[in-house]
UniProtKB/TrEMBL annotation:
NCBIfam families: PRK05461.1 (NF003967). Residues 12-136 form the ApaG domain. It comes from Paraurantiacibacter namhicola. Coiled coil: none annotated. This is CO2+/MG2+ efflux protein ApaG. SUPFAM superfamilies: ApaG-like.
């Protein structure tokens, strides 16, 4: 069975030696278009290209729908984890986003701490959420 993320990551941002890569897929089987609900899953890969360890502490998302409504999401870690990434380490996780419109976007940042306990803000690249045309009715 093929993984829905078997393609290359579509969006990348690099901040102070930390790369955040995103692959996003519309999920028709989890959407209820007739009820005005569209759903996407996204796969994030965080790569520590620095020479020191970093630990993810918080996430901040800006989710915008096609009407321009903005939902800000802040919280600890990602999917219940606060991974420690040594130099050269990567961390992958998958999460999802429902919208009440067939199009929207996500972007944001993670807050890490470095070996000295200093905060490091790492950008999450902007990525569109777009349902195929046959799923927008």
């Amino acid at each position: 069975m093929a993984n829905i993320f078997d393609h290359l990551f579509q969006h990348t941002a690099i901040t102070d030696g930390v790369a955040v890569r995103v692959a996003v897929n519309f999920m028709p089987e989890q959407s209820q278009v007739d009820a005005g609900r569209w759903f996407w899953v996204y796969h994030i890969r965080i790569e520590n290209r620095r020479h020191d360890a970093i630990q993810l502490q918080r996430r901040h998302w800006r989710i915008t729908d096609a009407r321009g409504a903005v939902n800000l999401v802040d919280g600890e870690g990602v999917v219940g984890e606060t991974p420690l990434l040594q130099p050269g380490d990567t961390h992958d996780y998958v999460s999802g986003c429902p919208l009440s419109t067939p199009h929207g976007s996500m972007e944001g940042f993670y807050t890490f701490t470095d070996d000295n306990g200093d905060p490091l803000e790492v950008r999450i690249p902007f990525f569109p959420l777009a349902a195929p045309a046959e799923e927008t009715r």
